[in-house]
Fold this sequence. Notes:
Oligomer: single chain
Shape: globular
Strand content: under 5%
Number of helices: 16
Number of strands: 3
Distance between the termini: 61 Å
Radius of gyration: 21 Å
Structural class: mainly alpha
Helix content: 55-70%
Bound molecules: iron/sulfur cluster
Strand order of the largest sheet: 1-2-3
Amino acid sequence: MSLPRTYLRPLRYAVQIGFFLLTLAIGYQFYEFVRHFEAPGHPFVERPSSVDAFLPIGGLMAFKYFLLTGIVEPVHPSGFIMFAAILGVSLVVKKGFCGWICPIGTLSQYVWMAGEKIFNRNFRLGPFTDISLRSIKYVLLGLFLFLIGIAMPPNMMALFFIADYYKVVDVRMMKFFTEMTAITMWVLIALGALSLLYKNFWCRYLCPYGALLGLLSRMSPFKVRRNEEKCTHCHACTEHCPTLIDVESKAVVKSEECFGCMTCVSHCPSEGALDLTVNTGKKVSVVKPWLFPIILIVLFYLVIGIGMVTDNWHSKIPNEDYQQLIPEVQKEYLNR
Ligand code: SF4
Ligand code: SF4
């Protein structure tokens, strides 16, 4: 494999920015959709189905419901499809979703990069505090899995899916940010400040979604491998890993924190010392690292495409329901 592989960093930044801008565009289109029902005369725009990606708990419920009944809930079906897509890609290309697609991951990255510029460094918690805090995301994941995966029977879910609350849960999610309370604002400010100081604070310590993807990522056949014979122990991989993995001391990076961002591979100056590899069960082969995001994006959109062709993408809620329910949510927020 020919070096240098520095192209991997701009490639990743471009993919991240592309998905971030797409998220902003989806958010804006959804905002315009909601305004149509709130403000008489406001032009109508179609509801972007992909906005349901912001409903991961709904996605988890719908996923369980599908496993038990074989039915895709019709209210936010794209939430289920994207949840399944994200789980599926994590089995193949580990936490590549976090490292290349997730807009919150991208935002966190630019915030810690800004922190690095301001303070000339990012701070690091001691090992005990770091491990203790990292357990929070697993506790949150366990809580959601218990409440939804175990405690909630499918008939209760079916009732929840047809409730008015769930029909406009996406509108409520939008208002959580557009009409945030003082508490929400201060929590976000605190998270922003912590993200400035510590790399990927939200992803590393708090995100239950990332915790789930990390556990699934253990099964991924793709791994970063280091060849001790070629390694010059220059520290570049360890120094630049955004998830603080001591790559230089590993033969294989198996950590559930690994984003598959290829930053370590892109910084390694020694040919053959650090490579992306795939384990096919019979042998371990070196793979061109640019293939990683391509496999990730193709698989992600393949699942979305299956959702679309099977008519499990667009919500089945008629606009008449939105006409009735969105002004009710608006009134609720005005009267708070
Ligand atoms: S080990 Fe390499 S691929 Fe994994 S997060 Fe660290 S820099 Fe990225
Ligand atoms: S960047 Fe490459 S050469 Fe340097 S320590 Fe890591 S694996 Fe070894």
